[in-house]
Amino acid sequence: xxxxxxxxxxxxxxxxxxxxxxxxxxxxxxxxxxxxxxxxxxxxxxxxxxxxxxxxxxxxxxxxxxxxxxxxxxxxxxxxxxxxxxxxxxxxxxxxxxxxxxxxxxxxxxxxxxxxxxxxxxxxxxxxxxxxxxxxxxxxxxxxxxxxxxxxxxxxxxxxxxxxxxxxxxxxxxxxxxxxxxxxxxxxxxxxxxxxx
Length: 197
Ligand SMILES: [Zn+2]
Fold this sequence. Notes:
By secondary structure, this protein is α/β, with parallel strands linked by helices.
């Protein structure tokens, strides 16, 4: 679906690079943006640049952050005796929505990926988590009940065995589903009903 306008076509093809956005979705996005009005469009363009230029990872928990340490790690009101290990920042944000008030440890990327997490990445992540266990009473494994989630669970369970009390999110999450797509109530129940490993 090409038009004679090069910059328009290029913008559509850039939106198509976003996973889950197809040809029609990308077209709809560009056309909707074009009718947002000049003020909103300029703000959108400048914020895309600002976010992509300044987004870093928290040096303590690997969450997204605009500084060295993220908003969760720097919040003194959070329960620092509990750490939830999640696969991605997207999963962390879903847990925040569900009302979890402890700390986090993010294993991999910003969004969950279907790609296998490399062994060296897992080892590095475990090492970072082990360095944070002082004064921590419990580590919750916040992985989904998928093949990838089970493998991550096994890896962290072996690595943390005997070093801290371990628990895993209850099966309020359907088998095969991803954490990021759960509603807040289901997520809330699943961390309240977590079980010891
Ligand atoms: Zn952090």
